[in-house]
Design a protein that fits this description.
The protein is an alpha/beta fold and 414 residues long. It has 19 helices and 14 strands. The longest helix has 20 residues.
Length: 414
């Protein structure tokens, strides 16, 4: 099979969409002997779509683990004009204001649509909304009569980003749509998408490293021995709501002064704000908070293994891969009772839900698991079983590959 994957960034660029696309691409090459090409941009981070002072990867073609990767330059001039037009048309509710918002978010990739149309692929896959390259992939594929599969990764709580009629028009025009959760499937169907073209698959994880990792080395390095540890795995961006977790922990510490907090994620411009919030804590609490940023992926299982409970406070999520990673490590999870998260966590079975954005509710959930280690252990093991049955990369890739075969077959029979 000749497969074209279109994504806004690719390794060494980091992020959920990048990681998912890389895993699918490499598995299809290794396991199915497919010819896989990735069209992506030179961006290491999304900031390059709007700013010219950000580092860029080289334009051109390279081979990474058997996958052909072609990086396109992006047009990032006129940021202030695009931003002003998007904001004004949105506030005034002008027709097609969603188009202006998409132009503002980018990436503007000259030649991408034409390259997709001329790729000769058997199937085109693109991820993720609300970024503009998804439309280039869709319309380029349709121009050439190539079946197209979209994975939107919809953050439904993000009104600015995802309350865009053009997103749902695009999904209706695709041959198939991959939803991460039942919640997302129902959400797009309610917006006119044919339920028959939506496949719920979810994201994947390499479970074995998490199952085998020992967290004692991390605990020793941090000076934490037998203390209970709460971890949050997330990029340091505002929508992850580190502020909410820190507020909840101040309530936790009143009852469990021995509790420790580990914050682990990629460093961003928001990291300094989180550091300032930690610095404002009383001295004793500061000593019980650690930040680990921009670590290598191979370190993540050991960070999870060092924890007793994994917390995920964000609601602007399509899935929450950190939850799956924690389960793979046998850890119970806590997430918000909002958007897609309740479709991922079976409350009371493999984790708990809290009332977002109530810090008191989150604190109660944390204390429930810290005060009952046996319940926490059972939840973590149930979560691991869920991962092994649904969310390993082998399972996810097989389901996506089957979907590709189906849309190719359906297009061939027309």
């Amino acid at each position: 099979m000749k497969i074209l994957h279109v994504v806004h960034g690719y390794v060494p660029s980091r992020g959920g969409s990048q990681w998912l696309t890389q895993q699918l691409s490499e598995i299809f090459v290794a396991r199915y002997s497919d010819q896989v090409t990735v069209f992506t941009t030179v961006a290491d981070s999304l900031d390059l779509f709007h700013r010219r002072d950000c580092p860029a990867l080289p334009v051109g073609v390279e081979t990474i683990n058997g996958v052909t990767v072609r990086r396109f330059p992006v047009f990032n001039r006129g940021r202030l004009i695009r931003k002003a037009a998007a904001g004004l048309t949105y506030r005034l509710r002008f027709p097609y204001n969603d188009w202006f918002r998409t132009l503002e978010s980018g990436p503007i990739v000259p030649g991408l649509r034409r390259a997709v149309a001329g790729s000769g692929a058997d199937v085109v896959f693109a991820t993720a909304f609300p970024l503009r390259h998804v439309y280039d992939a869709l319309y380029g594929a349709r121009r050439a009569g190539i079946p197209v599969v979209l994975l939107g990764a919809l953050h439904t709580a993000d009104v600015w980003g995802f309350d865009r009629p053009m997103i749902y028009r695009a999904i209706r025009q695709a041959d198939a749509y991959i939803a991460h959760t039942d919640f997302e499937r129902d959400y797009v169907v309610a917006r006119g998408v044919d339920a028959a073209k939506v496949r719920v698959i979810g994201a994947g994880v390499d479970a074995q490293p998490f199952m085998q990792a020992d967290g004692r080395r991390v605990r020793q390095a941090l000076g934490w021995q037998a203390q209970p540890v709460v971890i949050m795995l997330a990029r340091f961006v505002p929508r992850k709501r580190f502020d909410l977790l820190l507020a909840a922990m101040q309530q936790v510490w009143r009852q469990r002064p021995d509790a420790c907090l580990l914050l682990a994620g990629a460093r961003t411009s928001h990291t300094a704000e989180v550091e300032r919030a930690i610095a404002a804590l009383p001295a004793q609490q500061r000593r019980q908070v650690a930040m680990v940023d921009s670590f290598d992926e191979v370190e993540k299982p050991y960070l999870v293994a060092a924890a007793d409970v994994c917390v995920h406070t964000a609601t602007q999520e399509s899935f929450g891969i950190a939850l799956v990673e924690a389960w793979a490590g046998g850890k119970p999870v806590i997430g918000a009772r909002a958007a897609a998260i309740p479709s991922v966590i079976a409350a009371g079975e493999d984790g708990l839900l809290f009332d977002f954005p109530q810090a008191e509710s989150l604190a109660r959930a944390i204390l429930t698991l810290l005060d009952d280690p046996e319940q926490a252990r059972r939840m973590g093991l149930r979560g691991r079983q869920k991962v092994l049955e649904n969310y390993t990369w082998a399972i996810v890739a097989q389901r996506v590959h089957t979907l590709y075969e189906e849309v190719i077959g359906a297009r061939g029979s027309m």
